[in-house]
């Protein structure tokens, strides 16, 4: 798909080509356009500014940041943090540009309103604020921003599926699809609904990234002056950032060596082809699913929502509930091979919303295969086993099982503090704290932790999309 000039294929004026990242973010450009500046705190409250704005930043990233600035008039904090992985940022940006700014079934202002509805489910005032601005910029009715009750009924009808996709996607059925498509003045067309489903899952997952990386408000957002914290439960405790002196540093080094040894052991045992029976594989999945009950973050009693977010949320108490709890009727496990992205989801999206299937597929592939063959201070490492364990663990907490995968690997490779972090960011991102971010992989680079967040974002989005698209397919057949 060709994007218009001025997006990723833009020919930047020659005087712009030599900008450094810092110059691209300087307070004023030659054209007199003011660019939002950080108030000395950087794009993330978890990651030191120096880690993000590195001198001699590679030219591909510099070019991307300039193009983002030319296209959107700003380089936002999400872009800056994702810029630690330029290959992924390029793919993400193309997809988001298509969803929001290119031709599609839904008018532009409704796309931004759906983004607001999705982000509000996770109390993500950063994204809510960003898209309120965009909604007005593309001509949206300001009255709608007073809350969901002021929006047209057609948009309000999305509330139920928004709620389920955000918190318990396994509950989405063909009846939910049917209710939205039934004839009447507020009915959705299939093409409109598929675009809405992609937008909802995109922004639920992006909220995970915002909280998981501690993204700070933009300076020109109210929160840039201390009104909107990145998380309703931001952790004020001084988490050990780069100050791991004494035994803490030794323990962190040991964690890296233990992980390396376990990966080596697993790779060797695979080469020896020690057969694991299907029964044993099923048992290990159920064990991992049940164990995931024990890695929930401590429930913080304060569920107060900021008023700028609360007005877009109905049923705010509805949240993620563990896929399987003892004594409750658990929904059936989603067997991945019964409805795959490659064989089913991709073709359905491409049929109803051309081009976006291709871009989503590219984004899933890029993040799944992204590697620099490093782990902490080790180079030349095959990390595919670790990436697969993270991806499959996210799918596991949403009830999706790969029959050919040995979930024993998850237990071997993901230590408890990492599991707590993954589950929190994927299932209730608004509860993420800086302490959780610093507690896992203490000797790893920040870019490696951002890499985990990209895997989380995409695995979460694909899981929710699979449930949504399976319901659409069942409705159509």
Give the % helix.
40-55%
Outline type: globular
The H/E string reads HHHHHHHHHHHHHHHEHHEEHEHHHH
| Mean pLDDT reading | 80
Q: Give Rg in angstroms.
A: 22 Å
Which structural class do you get from the secondary structure elements?
mainly alpha
Query: How many strands appear in the DSSP assignment?
Result: 4
- CA-CA gap between termini: 30 Å
Number of helices: 22
**Biggest β-sheet, characterized?**
2 strands, parallel
- The main sheet orders its strands as 1-4
Poorly predicted runs: 1-40, 223-247, 299-303
Q: Which range does the strand content fall in?
A: under 5%
Can you put this structure into words, describing what you see?
- This protein is mostly helical.
- Helix content is 54%, strand content 2%.
- It is built from 22 helices and four strands.
- The chain has a two-stranded parallel sheet with strand order 1-4. Strands 2-3 form a two-stranded antiparallel sheet.
- Helix 18 (384-397) crosses helix 20 (416-427).
- The two termini are 30 Å apart.
- Residues 1-40, 223-247 and 299-303 have low confidence and may be disordered.
């Amino acid at each position: 798909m060709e994007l218009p000039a001025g997006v990723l294929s833009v020919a930047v004026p020659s005087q712009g080509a030599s900008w450094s990242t810092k110059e691209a973010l300087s307070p004023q450009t030659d054209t007199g356009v003011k660019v939002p500046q950080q108030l000395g705190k950087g794009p993330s409250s978890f990651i030191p500014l120096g880690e993000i704005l590195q001198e001699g930043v590679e030219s591909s990233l510099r070019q991307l940041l300039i193009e983002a600035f030319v296209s959107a008039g700003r380089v936002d904090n999400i872009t800056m943090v994702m810029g630690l992985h330029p290959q992924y940022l390029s793919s993400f940006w193309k997809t988001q540009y298509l969803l929001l700014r290119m031709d599609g079934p839904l008018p532009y202002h409704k796309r931004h309103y759906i983004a607001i509805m999705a982000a509000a489910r996770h109390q993500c005032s950063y994204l809510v604020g960003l898209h309120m601005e965009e909604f007005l910029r593309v001509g949206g009715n300001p009255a709608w921003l007073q809350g969901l009750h002021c929006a047209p009924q057609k948009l309000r009808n999305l509330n139920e599926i928004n709620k389920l996709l955000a918190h318990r996607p396994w509950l989405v059925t063909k009846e939910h699809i049917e209710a939205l498509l039934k004839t009447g003045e507020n009915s959705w067309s299939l093409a409109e609904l598929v675009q809405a489903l992609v937008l909802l899952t995109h922004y639920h997952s992006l909220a995970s990234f915002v909280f998981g990386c501690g993204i700070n408000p933009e300076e020109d957002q109210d929160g840039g002056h201390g009104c909107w914290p990145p998380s309703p439960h931001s952790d004020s405790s001084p988490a050990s950032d780069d100050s791991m002196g004494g035994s803490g540093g030794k323990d962190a080094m040991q964690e890296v060596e233990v992980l390396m040894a376990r990966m080596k052991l697993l790779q060797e045992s695979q080469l020896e082809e020690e057969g694991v029976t299907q029964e044993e594989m099923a048992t290990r999945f159920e064990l991992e699913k049940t164990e995931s009950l024990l890695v929930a973050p401590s429930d913080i009693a304060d569920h107060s929502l900021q008023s700028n977010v609360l007005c877009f949320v109905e049923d705010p108490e509805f949240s993620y509930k563990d896929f399987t709890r003892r004594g409750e009727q658990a929904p059936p496990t989603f067997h991945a091979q019964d409805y795959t992205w490659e064989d089913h989801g991709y073709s359905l999206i491409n049929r109803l919303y051309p081009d976006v299937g291709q871009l989503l597929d590219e984004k899933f592939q890029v993040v799944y295969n992204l590697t620099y063959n490093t782990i902490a201070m080790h180079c030349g490492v095959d990390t595919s086993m670790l990436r697969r364990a993270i991806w499959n663990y996210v799918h596991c907490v949403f009830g999706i099982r790969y029959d050919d995968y040995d979930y024993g690997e998850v237990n071997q490779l993901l230590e408890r503090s990492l599991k707590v972090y993954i589950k929190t960011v994927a299932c209730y991102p608004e509860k993420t704290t800086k302490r959780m971010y610093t507690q896992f992989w203490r000797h790893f680079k920040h870019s490696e932790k951002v890499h985990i967040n990209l895997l989380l974002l995409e695995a979460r989005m694909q899981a929710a999309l699979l449930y949504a698209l399976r319901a659409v397919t069942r409705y159509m057949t």
